[in-house]
Design a protein that fits this description.
Blueprint: E1 6-8, E2 15-17, E3 20-22, H1 28-68, H2 75-95, H3 103-107, H4 109-121, H5 124-178
Parallel strand pairs: 1-3
Antiparallel strand pairs: 2-3
């Protein structure tokens, strides 16, 4: 994935535009800050795609549950699906620093303004929130799927116990009547 972002130098003042920034001087720290924010935007695009893929898979399972009244997912598949979701959440936490500004911005007011302006230009916090909400929806669905699978397994085990008890009763009755 990539994103094009134009940087104009030697402007009268710092200005933010759509896919463009005008800066007064090409300072190394300013350029590094611009690259950091652009890379965060590209990472958000990637994680947004991954989250959308998980949501589509969740919607497919939910639609199947709605139409058939059954969940056509096995325990192993569900565990893999949960693992995929957790892995994505962990990768997002490891790779995105949207709420943290670099330490350089704490000491330089100009860098701080540029950082805040870039975050607004790329809508980093809103896009991050959308990804988090999407993953939360997936998590809620996974919990429901897990509960349904546990119910199905416990029902199956209950029937096995009922059958075993019935067989034992039949065996006792046969022993009682035929050993006389």
């Amino acid at each position: 994935m990539s994103e094009e972002f134009e940087v104009e130098t030697n402007a009268a003042e710092n200005k933010f535009g759509y896919n463009k920034i005008e800066i007064t001087k090409p300072d190394v720290e300013v350029l590094r800050l611009i690259m950091l924010n652009v890379s965060q935007s590209v990472a958000l695009d990637y994680f947004s795609e991954q989250t959308n893929a998980l949501q589509e898979e969740t919607n497919s399972n939910t639609l199947n549950l709605e139409r058939r009244g059954r969940l056509n997912i096995t325990g192993v598949h569900l565990k893999k699906y949960i693992g995929k979701t957790l892995k994505l959440k962990n990768r997002i936490a490891e790779n995105l620093y949207i709420f943290d500004s670099p330490p350089e911005t704490w000491e330089d007011e100009n860098l701080n303004r540029i950082d805040q302006g870039l975050k607004k230009t790329f809508d980093l916090q809103d896009r991050y929130r959308d990804i988090r909400e999407g993953l939360e929806i997936v998590r809620e669905n996974l919990e429901l799927f897990k509960d349904l699978l546990q119910y199905r397994n416990s029902t199956f085990l209950e029937w096995i116990i009922i059958i075993l008890v019935a067989l034992e009763v039949v065996n006792l009755l046969l022993d009682k009547f035929f050993k006389i």
